[in-house]
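thought: fold this chain, then report.
action: predict
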Amino acid sequence: PVMRSHRVTVEQMAMLEPGLSETVCASLLVVMRQAMDECVSRGVPAEAARDFLLGHMNVLGAVIFKEVDGVFSDACNKAIEFGIPALMRDDWKKVFEPQEIAESIRRIT
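observation:
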């Protein structure tokens, strides 16, 4: 549910949708689902993989977005340090450049 309303410019709204919500968030969630499916294909029981991933998403998200006081373990921080460059292109933030946003809107409409 929507908790608050906000006033933003048209350009800011385009950064939020499709930029943040669809291009970034939905794409990364699809990759997370694909990673879960890969674990299942390698023998992890599907329910275990799903419950494990969704549970971690809740806890990790709460810490990352400062909804709870907490920090990640050293092991988690090291996994993030390795994982981001292994999974993400160095120039991924270009999806928020005005020309990229405009091209994204053209592609999806």
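thought: worth noting. The chain has a mean pLDDT of 97.
final: tokens above.
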